[in-house]
Design a protein that fits this description.
Layout: E1 12-13, H1 26-34, H2 46-59, E2 63-67, H3 70-81, E3 86-91, H4 95-98, H5 103-106, E4 111-115, H6 124-130, E5 140-147, H7 160-172, E6 176-181, H8 184-191, H9 195-199, E7 204-208, E8 219-223, H10 225-237, H11 246-258, H12 263-278, E9 283-284, E10 294-299, H13 306-317, E11 319-320, E12 322-325, E13 328-332, H14 339-354
Parallel strand pairs: 1-11, 3-4, 3-5, 5-6, 6-7
Antiparallel strand pairs: 2-8, 7-8, 9-10, 10-13, 12-13
Helix pairs in contact: 1-11, 2-11, 3-10, 6-7, 12-14, 13-14
Bound molecules: pyridoxal-5'-phosphate.
């Protein structure tokens, strides 16, 4: 079991860029405090409407809707795209497979077809091979989903040149396409490619307001007007219709205006940490995969499981890592991590690793 903050003092928190305990900035708090609010379900919350306009423009989509979380964006999209028994083609590392409580099965009634590939990416040829030939016996291939950036795949960016053929092959087979943009803005900042270019051709795409963007909660899902109408039906049905969401939207607007460029700082601190631990003989790391704010490394020749190592590092220096898989650790940088924190944390990680010999 992963130790919780109440058990031990966390000084440097790399657990996630979402569950980090960074407080909203003063400017964001003021935006929240001063916002004029109305009723979201009736389309009468002004800040929510403004946020939706911003995201439609950003992602190049016709309509958008505010949801409480990125998980709900994924799962409502899949539930709209799929009929029970349909199949979702996505990376084996995909968030809906591992971290959404079995929702593709529970909420969409769909099966998943995990594709193996480097860095949580796959190719159009793999999609082409995975699409089922129509038959009464097989599930119906229905949707292809990608993550930008690939979370457990390594925090790596897809290029537009990689995404375009995937969208093309999906359309050729009559499949829907979905882009999980939990960290889309990290990819935008890391590559310089506009968000709308990454989202082009996708039937559904969303951004998380709470990861590196630093809002307390919220995510915005975008697509065609027809798609968003169907999402609204589920939003009401699943109890996601809200009231004075301006308090969330004000934080989101503030985040999009003020916190996008600063994602580059998170990328720099991630790089700094990665390069520093890469020197250690007990660290297996692919520095090519360190493209954004996520760093993955493997424990090499140590006596510990990843959970044991996470516990040791927390006890030794108050650094909280995510034990993401057997022998594999994840570090997420975010607004609460300075360059100094990254250096100190890397040294603490290396100190503990050095006791392995
Ligand atoms: C965090 C994350 C989600 C879920 O977002 P929440 O807002 O935490 O529900 C979905 N996909 C990916 C790739 C994520 O990293």
């Amino acid at each position: 079991m992963r130790p919780t903050p109440s058990e031990l003092e966390v000084k440097i928190d790399f657990l996630s860029d979402a569950v980090n305990r960074t407080q909203p900035s003063q400017g964001m708090r003021e935006a929240i405090a001063n916002v004029v609010v109305g009723d979201e379900q009736n389309g009468e919350d002004p800040a929510t409407n403004e946020l939706l306009e911003m995201v439609k423009e950003l992602l190049g989509k016709e309509e958008a809707v505010l949801l409480p979380s990125g998980t709900m964006c994924n799962e409502m999209s899949l539930a709209v795209h799929c009929r029970p028994g349909d199949e979702i083609i996505l990376a084996a590392t995909g968030h809906p497979i591992h971290f959404e409580g079995g929702a593709p099965a529970a909420m969409a009634g769909a099966m998943v077809r995990p594709l193996e590939g480097q860095y949580g990416k796959f190719t159009a040829a793999q999609v082409d091979d995975a699409v089922r030939s129509p038959s009464r016996l097989t599930p119906r291939s229905r949707v292809v989903a990608v993550e930008q950036t690939t979370n457990v795949g390594g925090g790596v960016c897809w290029s537009v040149d990689e995404l375009r053929p995937i969208v093309a092959v999906a359309k050729e087979h009559g499949l829907r396409t979905h882009l999980d943009g939990a960290r889309l803005m990290n990819a935008v900042v890391a590559t310089g490619t506009p968000a709308a270019e990454f989202c082009a051709g996708f039937d559904s795409a969303w951004i998380d307001l709470c990861k590196g963007l630093g809002a307390p909660l919220g995510a915005v899902l975008a697509g065609s007007a027809e798609f968003i109408d169907e999402v609204w039906r589920l939003k009401q049905r699943w109890g996601g219709g809200m009231r004075q969401t301006g308090f969330i939207a004000a934080a989101g607007i503030y985040a999009l205006r003020n916190n996008v460029e600063r994602l580059a700082d998170d990328h720099r601190t991630a790089r700094l940490f990665a390069e520093r631990i890469a020197q250690n003989e007990h660290v297996g790391i692919d520095l090519n995969a360190v493209q954004t704010n996520l760093v993955f490394f493997d424990l090499v020749d140590t006596p510990w499981t990843s959970d044991e190592f996470a516990a040791l590092v927390l006890r030794h220096g108050g650094v909280r890592l995510l034990a993401v898989a057997p022998g594999r650790m994840r570090v997420a940088t975010h607004p609460g991590i300075s360059a100094d924190d990254a250096r100190v944390a890397a040294d603490i990680v290396c100190d503990v690793l050095d006791t392995a010999t």
